[in-house]
Amino acid sequence: MSNAFHYKWNLKDAIFTKDKGKVFSCFACGGGSTMGYKLAGYDVLGCNEIDPKMMDAYKRNHNPKYAFLEPIQEFKTRNDLPEELFNLDILDGSPPCSSFSISGNREKDWGKEKVFREGQAEQVLDTLFFDFIDLAKKLHPKIVVAENVKGLLLGEAKKYVRKIYHEFDLAGYHVQHWLLDASKMGVPQRRERVFFIALRKDLSESFMNQVDLFTQAPKLKLHFNLPKIIFGEIKDEQGRFLSENMQKIWEKRKLGDADMGDAYYRDFKKDKFFSQNYIYSNKVSKTITAHEDSLVLFDAPRFTSHDEVCQIGTFPLDYDFGKNKPHYIVGMSVPPLMVAQISTQIYEQWLSKINVYA
Asked: What is the mean pLDDT of residues 116-138?
């Protein structure tokens, strides 16, 4: 598969054809998925988001036709939604997922109300996915795309996956899921994410000649194996230098160290600085996170620069972050190129055929 998209791009130069279908995005953050759909040729009508700062960034860069700043629990019960939202090709969403992250408390946090940064609101994070399915049941789009963390497929969290399948079935959808690695999709970082993609049951008739006796719906094929992009291809000479104390630890690094905590532990037998992960120029970058100081160059005593962060996350270089830190928005967002690759396949394998028979 050739790569039709490039990780280094600018919004001002992008040509968005808007000829592949209409999309609405929930839990939109700064619009990572929105940019992916736009790159693939979709018309993104707008978004639902709970965090005012994220909504500000979304509006700065996307000028949405519809923008709903409110919890999805309120949004899904609205009786004044525009008619266009009831005629969507794709309903997109990335429900906040820290409850399932392998780096979090996981089971200890399930079912608890938490105040979290997105809007500073109390919510039970592990039920937001089902609020999103409720919205799908109300809007009845042709296809639903939901992104989440790898941890959703591990251990006791698998029970949630079974419930997700059950709720999609009750809502009138056939659903499939994939664990995809961004580094195989033209994204310069190792980032594994789970994508649930659901097709409305009544549309399966468009594929009757492709469905055998043992399947209920056409299987979407998502196989990506693009060449990996090492950090050296995007490295520049910018970026904030380490503090004097951190540089002393950095100077004691050894080839093969995963993070600055390795050197600190060798000297003091204590766990510290393990959140400062090294990036090697000859390797693909590790997953970018929302924390500004999470990525440190192994061959230079500095953090990643603005342009490096944008390219690692496949955000446009001219994205207007406003008062937000680039790491935070990019780390919280789905890489646009991941969504561009997936939504291209959705159009080619499903929507283009559905539209012929519609």
From this structure: 76
